[in-house]
Design brief:
single chain, alpha+beta, two-stranded parallel sheet, 2 helices, flat
Length: 43
């Protein structure tokens, strides 16, 4: 599960709710998305 923390929450709240990855903006997620897709294709 991917969490995008764009607000005042601590990252731990998203992680405790089940997020395996936490990003701090949609742009940060977009920048990493090709790498995420590559990794998941290996599973």
């Amino acid at each position: 599960t991917i969490g995008v923390n764009t607000g005042p929450l601590h990252d731990n709240i998203l992680k405790d709710a089940g997020a395996n990855l936490v990003f701090h903006s949609m742009q940060e997620l977009l920048n990493k998305f090709p790498e995420i897709l590559e990794i998941t294709s290996l599973i």
